[in-house]
Amino acid sequence: LAEAIGTFFLMFVIMGVAVDERAPPGFAGLVIGLTVGGIITATGNIAGASLNPARTFGPYLLDLVLGGSNFWGFFPIYVIGPVAGAVAAVFVYGYLNSDS
């Protein structure tokens, strides 16, 4: 759940400052960076700040190669959560900014 919520906020901010043509130029990088920092601070202890499935895949793969414990049962959570959060953010942003 933390992955989905964190990615939702990140994608919502990206839609607002980088994709929306009404956004003032020059601030997207700063705002997105501060958002990522805030999400990492808020969800780091819960989910390890896994906003990107590739960020989780690398350590899981290394753990598998080195013969560590098997956490692959949790991997779908780290894929489905961020994807669902990003898709939901796009739909919510589109709904909130629609003219009708």
Question: Top keywords for this entry?
Answer:
single chain, Glycerol uptake facilitator protein, 100 residues, 4 helices, mainly alpha, elongated
Describe it.
This protein has helices spanning 2-19, 28-47, 53-65, 75-96. The two termini are 31 Å apart. It contains four helices and no strands. The longest helix has 22 residues, at 75-96. It is mainly α and 100 residues long. The chain has a single domain (2-96), classed as Glycerol uptake facilitator protein (Up-down Bundle), CATH 1.20.1080. The relative contact order is 0.21.
Task: Tell me the number of strands.
Answer: 0
Radius of gyration, CA atoms, in whole angstroms: 16 Å
Overall helicity:
over 70%
Specify the number of helices: 4
CATH architecture assignment: Up-down Bundle
| Tally of separate domains | 1
CATH topology, anyone?
A: Glycerol uptake facilitator protein
| Fraction in beta strands | under 5%
Order of helices and strands: HHHH
Taken from the alpha-carbon principal axes, the silhouette is elongated
Which stretches are poorly predicted, pLDDT < 50 over at least 5 residues? none
Top CATH class: Mainly Alpha
Kindly report how far apart the N and C termini lie. 31 Å
Q: Largest sheet at a glance? A: none
Mean pLDDT comes to 88
Helix/strand structural class: mainly alpha
Task: Look at the structure and name the CATH superfamily.
Answer: Glycerol uptake facilitator protein
